[in-house]
Amino acid sequence: MLLCSWRGFTRVAVAFTTAPVAEPKRGAAARLMDFLKPRLIPMNRRRRIYEGKAKVLYEGPEPGTLIQHFKDDATAFNAKKHEVIDGKGVLNNRISEFIFQHLNDIGVPTHFIRRLNMREQLIREVEIVPLEVVVRNVAAGSLSKRLGMEEGTQLPRSIIEFYYKNDALDDPMVSEEHITAFGWASPQEIDDIMALAIRVNDFLSGLFLGVGIRLVDFKMECGRLWEGDLMRIVVADEISPDSCRLWDIKSNDKLDKDRFRRDMGGLVEAYTEVARRLGIMQENEAPRAGAPKLVQ
Predict the structure, then answer these.
(1) Residue 196 phi, psi (nearest 5)
(2) Which of 139, 165, 171, 228 is most buried (most C-beta within 10 Å)?
(3) Tens digit of pLDDT for each residue in 78-131?
């Protein structure tokens, strides 16, 4: 998903009232923290910044913020396969929120601020690096096809791969030489991205192992977060069963988007199981594909 940086735009808010109302005096710190307060804006009044295959980005309540809306669309093979699956967006929003909040808590920088509702998150505006970063722990998917390895083979060590984000080209795999030669990222940024990828992989592997799930591989995106004249690389987009391969440790049942890619069915049930094991969904609750009931 390509996320553009929109700097310098002007937002105009018009309020109609019968009499002037004095605004209570607030300090600068309080004004800066306004983005942490709930602010409900009807969707049809928001300015749409970008729409991708599975998410929509809207202008946020404060400069430097965006609202990320999770759709129910399921796509594969760069949208050559497409279906709308009721409830998928809700599950991805909550699972991604859970993971990003924990990454923030352990000091991994991300774009995530907080969840707004069952389908939306408040995020920091970043300039997306046009790369998909794939971390592989177990042979599966395209790696198995390219190298003739049996799916499920444990790799000697975790492998980091880069793919150029371009749907028209089917996101080709690229090397660090390509990345620096074409200016997609600098050598220092590549080092920062790889360091983040290793930290995220270590965290996710332990998190999922603790609930009986094997992290086979995952896709991560990064962005440049500008704070004045300073820039740092942060984890962006989402981390959910849409972007991870997750297998049950005992049965090797797939609990990820491969259920859609390979016409296995049961995608919402698989995502619901992941949410239940992570404690996002109540243990004694039967999954319902139409409207998953999640822990608030």
Answers:
(1) -65, -40
(2) 139
(3) 778 999 999 999 999 999 999 999 999 999 999 999 999 999 999 999 999 999
